[in-house]
Amino acid sequence: MSPLVVLLIPLLFSCSPSSSVPIGSRYILRAIDVDSNTGPDLHDAAVDLNTTNFDQVLRNTPATYAIVEFFAHWCPACRNYKPHYEKVARLFNGPDAVHPGIILMTRVDCASKINTRLCDNFSVGHYPMLLWGNPSKFVSGSWDPKKDKNEIRLIDDGRTAERLLNWINKQIGSFFSLDDQKFENDHLASNASDPEQIARAVYDIEEATSTAYDIILEQKMIKSETRASLIKFLQILVVHHPSRRCRKGSAEVLVNFDDLCPSDMGTPNKQEATDGNGKGALRNFQICGKEVPRGYWMFCRGSKNETRGFSCGLWILLHSLSVRIEDGESQLAFTAICDFIHNFFICEECRQHFYEMCLSVSSPFNKTRDFALWLWSAHNKVNERLVKEEASLGTGDPKFPKIIWPSKQLCPSCYFSLSKNDDGTSQINWNRDEVFKFLSSYYGKMLVSLYKDKGLLGDDGTDRVSLEDLATTTNAVVVPVGAALAIALASCAFGALACFWRSQQKNRKYLHQLHSLKNI
Where are the transmembrane segments (predicted)? Predict the structure, then answer.
């Protein structure tokens, strides 16, 4: 054995005495660096990308801007720069971010052979190198430093955390600080007079849908007497949820629901089997895809930790459903939403108050307009009640106080007249036709405008099927299917899907392949 080999063997074993890093691994320098730290590592906030997930992550992010750091794991300067980059990334990335949903901070290891072509596309000539731009511009994109006009920009002054954040502030006119604390800042953008900000709420709807699903499973709320109402609500989500991810995820749950939560689950033997297998198996389904939940809110983020968030996201989901349904579906949607809130919304006082408003409806809804306006009116009644309680207890969000909605700033044409009562409350004479037009636009096209920009909807921008096509997917709910037959014949785009649902009903076998639902 040569003297060189004799010297190398103890050196290799001494580099990482307690790690499992293989001899010859390109990550051995990183392992040495980790072992030299005396304290525990913080979880990295910056997202590691490679050629397999680069386009997907940047296409699907809700963030307005993105930074991509190109580095090499063997580069000492890159390792020394990482703490600076992470310090800024923790402001914007992850569930504990101070300013979530604004900037997605990522990194790509160009020393990994899988990323060679990716790094070449972006003309990486030194390490570390930082590029800035709209996330969509990175998707299947490139960067050429010789071009005078680039939609992707080189960050030329970001060698420390302070300088990088200063560069960011200059680009977007912000005042972020490394000392900013979560929910203790003045950087939240007011959405009172900017209707286009509702587009960011599509991500909050996904978050609320996923949160509601998790609560239902965690609290074991699916019982023989509640399963039918959950099925009806899932049917609505499959057809009319604004997010394609949630439509597909809801379809997966619905197709497998009878097997996992059978209709006779109330019997002792079935109840025991379902608790052991069914509900546990339901946890394997991610109702809005693997990217959700993200752990933070965007449009619905309050200025305090305990305000807005889930309840805001759920309200927006309900409003969006109310304007997306067809006239013939309005009563079915009304009962499905009322029963869902009554059975599965865990705030006792809130759900009882909502259900009392449902019970006060004396005649069925025949038009989308009527149901959408009823839900809008119900929401304002809730706000009227809560604004008084929050004012007396000091529990409201000072930056986002409860108001009668929409404000005159958002929809001037919605108001015939506005006056004040003797007690200081507002007396509004609404133009209900204009209110419905506003609701349809605000919770319809405007809400999904970001999804259209990212190409996550169908070619027609709606990508929907008929609710009644799905109304017979389970024996728990029986409704007329005449409308479903007519729509299936009229719509070749979704004819295959309609046939799939009918065959499932006929055979009573809910065996699901995701590609069967690709048009949902």
Answer: 477-501
User: Vertex 174, ends 170 and 180: CA angle to 5°?
Assistant: 120
Q: What is the CATH number of the domain that holds 146?
A: 3.40.30.10
Residues 6+ apart with CB under 8 A from 77: 127, 128
Burial code (b: 16+ CB inside 10 Å, e: under 16) for 390-409 equals beeeeebbeebebebebeee
> DSSP E strands: which ranges in 161-251?
none
Is the residue at 341 inside a domain?
yes
Q: Does residue 177 fall inside a structural domain? A: no
Catalytic one of 78, 110, 288, 338 = 78
Q: How many domains does the chain have?
A: 2
Annotated catalytic, 492? no
Catalytic residue among 15, 75, 350, 358: 75
Give the structural domain span for 118: 47-172
Which pLDDT does position 17 carry in this prediction? 34
SS3 428: strand
Please give the distance of CA 261 from its chain centroid, rounded to a whole number: 26
Q: Look at residue 332 and tell me if it is in a domain.
A: yes
Q: Which ranges of 293-366 would DSSP assign to H, the alpha helix? A: 310-324, 330-344, 348-359
* Residue 110 pLDDT: 94
Looking at the predicted structure, is the pLDDT value of residue 146 above 90?
no
pLDDT at position 348 over 60: yes
pLDDT, one tens digit per residue, over 97-112 is: 888 888 999 999 999 9
Confidence of residue 129 (pLDDT cuts 50, 70, 90): very high
Torsion of CA 399, 405, 409, 413, to 10 degrees: 180
Which pLDDT value is given to residue 447?
87
Q: Which residue has the tokens 């579906």?
A: 329
**Claim to verify: residue 112 and residue 230 sit in the same structural domain:** no
Q: What is the per-residue pLDDT across 380-419, written as a single tens digit (0 to 9) for each?
A: 999 988 888 888 888 888 888 888 889 888 899 999 988 7
Does 40 fall in a domain? no
Please give the structure tokens belonging to residue 356.
């009392």
Respond yes or no: is residue 411 known to be catalytic: no
Tell me the pTM: 0.66
